[in-house]
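Z., the sequence and structure:
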Amino acid sequence: MDEAITHLKVPIRFEERDVCLGPDGSVAHVTRVFRMLSGRWKLPILFRLFAEPSLRSSQLLRDIPGISQKMLTQHLRALEEDGLIEREDFGEQPPRVEYRLTEQGRDLMPVLMSVRLFSQRHPEGQEKQRR
């Protein structure tokens, strides 16, 4: 059976297949980023933190309809572990904690804005019309 050669269609200079498919290849890097963004609430959290320099979890809870405190906490922890946001605890009573995008999180935002632009240029339902 012939091996698929779709990796040759990726617009990068032609080199060994490891450039696309190896452990440090394009597929591995893109998969890692998709994993960082997977989860129902991660994108709303990131875009909200992109709009404001820093926010408390109570404000995020108010600004993101439908999210529970438990899910907000889980997603904030995951985003912090992945280095996309940072948590600042002011050590006050009552507790005051704020979240903000890290430099890595800010670097990701142009990519997400490009994905948004792609979606706007290719509305839902168009893919069925082309088939």
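DSSP finds seven helices and three strands in the chain. The CA atoms of residues 3 and 101 lie 42 Å apart.

Let me know what you think.
H.
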